[in-house]
């Protein structure tokens, strides 16, 4: 019908953006990892009694079932949401389930003295916590003296200014970037740090300003030594421009759902400014648009809370693994607990190359949609300890885990075993390691101090499979490297280095996104060398391509140029009609400009957010509509 249109509309309920089975919520209430599963409740899991858990634990204490991710929320979950996911006195003193005991009495904090990451008293740490969202029989409960329930030690405050510090904040934005109608897009943007009043500042906290939650997958922020030209601020820059116009090689921070960009305790600061060789930033953004919705605009950005009042210590970062890109490495389909593990032998030195010590503050894990469990195990001499593991991990909750209460100092000779566990039961093909949301990664990043110390890892990576009830800790003793079919030497952090054993050869015709830049030169080489054909292993071209052929990474280009008619090539190619970008420009014009400048700065008191939902809180006030216009306009 002339003039008609069909609206394809997708809604996200307001609650769905923030109401999830986020594992980090358990750190925000006392004994969140030690709640006994009520009799007859669904989703109970066996507890780790050696770690002080009951025989049966409830992980989703705010949800309809103990498995979590089930709605509606139970009365305690509704109360936790009402108090912004924070253990306030009001939440503590409330009796959410109406059984005669307050939430604090049920969780072992009857006098409401505990706060996030406090070391609990003996009373709280050994208390048999009951479920605050399911009525329990309260008979026989005797309230203890408050002195016996006070935390043994208070946790360091994170992401807060000290009373004597001058408070400033700066905001930097992407300037009205049109998100491509493509599944995966990697693109870089230039922004300048706007404050030039001093040579150095300390960053207290940095957070995302999320304006396109349906499309922005994550970003990494690199610090740059020179300011960008005004016409580049907020705009797309190429890696070539980055090299020719600037020098952006310092990782400042990164964001993924659930994670702040920078998170500091009260004595630690992340340096920025001319003396820190960071006066501008390069935002390396990853957009995910699997439905290929056109005309979507990004004005996303980030906010830095900082002070000219320098703190006593400067932060630094090291990673035990940052496996990101290897088309010869993957998670096989149909696996419940497939693991990748990295042996990390530490070498810790200061800037002068002398032996040093690294004090650990936080750990953050990163994977994509198949990630389910994350483990780090530290061995110092004959002692082995859990080093910030997450036996339940979600992509949407990539929080920084506070390790300060462990009081760990790393030095040369220490060993960290880091493991990512993946669930691919709903996949029908191998999921490779790469940059797309539907690919996988395995990262573990530690923040600590002092700033002049560097910790480096050496060691192999290998893969295998865990049984259903097998613990993730101690894995390297049960699944030894020499028994694995897939081993890499770890010489390259991003790719895993050279493959030492096994093969993960795939037989599907695939366009591996991060390999497309290599494809034309491989095809030219094939045409010039009669001994190279469509079935040739590409290891000699690049070691990380071990087990791959031109068809398993460059399907479309190879089938068109050198392998037409091959059995792996699709029978036909579906063409797509290019988007008329004038329609997007007209839409942008009609809705008005964003009104956002490349960066702003303010001074004075700064109200730091207490919710990890970030921009989702704003989005939760309305239904989010993604509208695709189809038909005659």
From TrEMBL:
Residues 1-21 form the signal peptide. The keyword Transmembrane helix does not apply. One of its GO terms (molecular function) is dopamine beta-monooxygenase activity. The keyword Ion transport does not apply. Keywords: Disulfide bond, Glycoprotein, Signal. Residues 172-292 form the Copper type II ascorbate-dependent monooxygenase N-terminal domain. Residues 323-450 form the Copper type II ascorbate-dependent monooxygenase C-terminal domain. InterPro entries: Cu2_ascorb_mOase-like_C, Cu2_ascorb_mOase_N, Cu2_ascorb_mOase_N_sf, Cu2_monoox_C, DBH-like, PHM/PNGase_F_dom_sf, S-S_Temptin. Residues 19-133 form the Temptin Cys/Cys disulfide domain. This is Peptidylglycine monooxygenase.
């Amino acid at each position: 019908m002339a003039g008609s249109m069909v609206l394809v509309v997708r809604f996200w309920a307001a609650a769905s953006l923030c109401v999830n089975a986020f594992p980090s919520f358990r750190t925000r209430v006392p004994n969140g990892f030690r709640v006994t599963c009520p009799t007859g409740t669904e989703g109970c899991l066996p507890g780790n009694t050696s770690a002080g858990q009951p025989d049966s634990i409830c992980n989703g204490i705010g949800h309809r079932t103990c498995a979590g991710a089930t709605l509606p929320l139970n009365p305690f979950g509704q109360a936790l949401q009402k108090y912004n996911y924070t253990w306030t006195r009001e939440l503590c003193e409330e009796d959410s389930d109406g059984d005669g005991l307050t939430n604090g009495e049920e969780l072992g904090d009857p006098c409401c003295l505990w706060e996030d990451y406090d070391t609990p008293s003996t009373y709280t740490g050994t208390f048999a916590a009951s479920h605050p969202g399911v009525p329990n029989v309260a008979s026989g409960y005797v309230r203890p003296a408050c002195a016996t329930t006070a935390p043994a030690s208070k946790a360091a405050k994170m992401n807060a200014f000290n009373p004597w510090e001058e408070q400033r904040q700066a905001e930097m934005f992407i300037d009205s970037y049109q998100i491509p109608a493509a599944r995966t897009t990697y693109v870089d943007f230039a922004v300048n740090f706007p404050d030039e009043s001093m040579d150095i500042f300390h960053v207290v906290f940095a957070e995302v300003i999320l304006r396109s939650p349906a499309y922005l997958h994550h970003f990494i922020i690199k610090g740059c030594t020179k300011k960008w030209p005004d016409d580049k601020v907020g705009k797309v820059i190429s890696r070539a421009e980055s090299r020719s116009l600037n020098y952006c090689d310092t990782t400042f921070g990164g964001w993924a759902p659930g994670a702040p960009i920078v998170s500091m305790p009260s004595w630690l600061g992340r340096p920025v400014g001319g003396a820190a060789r960071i006066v501008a930033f390069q935002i390396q953004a990853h957009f995910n648009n699997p439905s290929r919705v056109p005309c979507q605009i990004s004005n996303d950005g980030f906010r830095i809370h900082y002070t000219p009042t320098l703190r006593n210590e400067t932060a630094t970062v090291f990673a035990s693994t940052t496996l990101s890109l290897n088309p010869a490495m993957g998670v096989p389909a149909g696996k419940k607990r497939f693991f990748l593990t990295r042996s990390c032998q530490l070498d810790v030195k200061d800037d002068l190359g002398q032996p040093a010590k690294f004090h650990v503050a936080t750990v953050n894990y990163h994977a994509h949609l198949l990630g389910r469990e994350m483990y780090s195990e530290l061995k110092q001499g004959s002692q082995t300890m859990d080093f910030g593991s997450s036996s339940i991990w979600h992509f949407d909750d990539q929080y920084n885990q506070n390790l300060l209460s462990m009081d760990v100092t790393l030095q040369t000779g220490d060993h960290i075993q880091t493991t990512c566990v993946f669930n691919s039961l709903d996949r029908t093909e191998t999921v490779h390691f790469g940059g797309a949301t539907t690919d996988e990664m395995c990262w573990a990043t530690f923040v600590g101090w002092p700033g002049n110390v560097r910790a480096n890892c050496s060691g192999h990576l290998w893969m295998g499979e865990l049984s259903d009830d097998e613990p993730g800790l101690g894995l390297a003793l049960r699944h030894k490297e020499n028994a694995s079919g897939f081993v890499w030497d770890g010489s390259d952090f991003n790719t895993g280095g050279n493959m030492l054993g096994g093969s993960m050869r795939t037989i599907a015709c695939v366009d591996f996104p991060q390999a497309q830049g290599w494809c034309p030169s491989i095809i030219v080489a094939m045409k010039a060398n009669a001994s190279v054909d469509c079935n040739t292993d590409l290891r000699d071209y690049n070691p990380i391509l071990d087990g791959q052929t031109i068809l398993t990474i460059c399907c479309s280009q190879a089938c068109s140029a050198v392998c037409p008619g091959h059995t792996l090539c699709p029978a036909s190619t579906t063409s797509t009609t290019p988007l008329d970008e004038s329609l997007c420009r007209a839409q942008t014009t009609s809705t008005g400009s964003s009104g956002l400048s490349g960066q702003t700065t303010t001074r004075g008191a700064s109200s730091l957010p207490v919710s990890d939902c970030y921009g989702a809180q704003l989005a939760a006030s309305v239904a989010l509509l993604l509208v695709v216009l189809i038909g005659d306009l």
